[in-house]
């Protein structure tokens, strides 16, 4: 298929190099954006639940309720903010970049406040503090993440370059995971227990790093394209929603992503208890973080040739099938040591790494399909719907994680957990992920419609439609 010549519409500004060719600066800038996001997002995913249960002494069930309520609210905030962004005209600095810079400072400040323990306060105060700071932080996260995710659409309109941005974005997330999951447990746990002072110190440090990354993203990324005039889209909300309902690729990738996020957040929540209580080795969490990041970086050079030969859908499905089998086998291997568990699970991590690496390219495809169906290029709105689905997944996972840990009998007040509770935690960390990965495999194989041939044909059809309209 012949690739269409790329044309840039300059932003209404006199900024130098605004039409500079897409290159390494854009890739590094986009990487820094997700690195900044995940310095706090992954910190929260890895340690906030155990911080609330063991430092604030909030029950696991109440923490689950908090996560559920907050993530559902965040899903609404995502869509509202995405729609708001799509109705804004570009400024001198661009349409999306200014929001990343403006909102990053209150976002990071609220993130640090989540880990502040004020001595002498009651349990009721800590519960209220947790609810307020966590919900505000999640709302502010939407105001940064939605413009960041949507910005890829104005950095370049070349499908290959957008896939490259997806890979660099994933690399940013994995670098944050490497730092947090490998070094975090070594710092925040003292004598196998989380330490409040060290946790706050780490939050402040990662807050400074996050701000630095957001500034780097703002400085290095270039918005080259102007979206459709928002005044021309007046009254298009009905068309947008009808188009989304007709967009089968969007619907199925939303469902697959939602389920995947449930699994990711569940594993992040349960792994702390798995290593701390089941294996009695909290510091081994750093090993699983290192292995997971390593698996992704090993998969990175394999993704492009596999996608070129097989297609995105097919590559992701193979990875999901492998992960499902590995975690199913792990469920029956209950006598492994912590290190043996990490080593065996590395194969499963290598499998689901492929889904992680191509997911943003899936999003690009469904945005293109939305344009083909509706004639509207609404990147922020469609991206916010995708992000909303992920937040719903986080809500379900946060709630299920807390409720499930409580349901299997975990009690923070116990010096040692019962064997029933330990076995339950092991099942949550192995059997449940196996089932979820298997379900995603089935969705990709039998329900997601854009295989390699159909994706290539979509690019051709969309190019012809744009030519007819233009």
UniProtKB/TrEMBL annotation:
It comes from the Bacteria. PANTHER family: MAJOR FACILITATOR SUPERFAMILY (MFS) PROFILE DOMAIN-CONTAINING PROTEIN (PTHR11328:SF24), MAJOR FACILITATOR SUPERFAMILY DOMAIN-CONTAINING PROTEIN (PTHR11328). The lineage of its organism: Bacteria, Bacillati, Bacillota, Bacilli, Bacillales. It comes from Metabacillus halosaccharovorans. Keywords: Membrane, Transmembrane, Transmembrane helix. The keyword Ligase does not apply. Pfam families: MFS_2. Coiled coil: none annotated. This is MFS transporter. The chain crosses the membrane at residues 39-69, 99-118, 124-146, 167-187, 199-218, 250-270, 282-303, 315-333, 339-363, 395-413, 425-448.
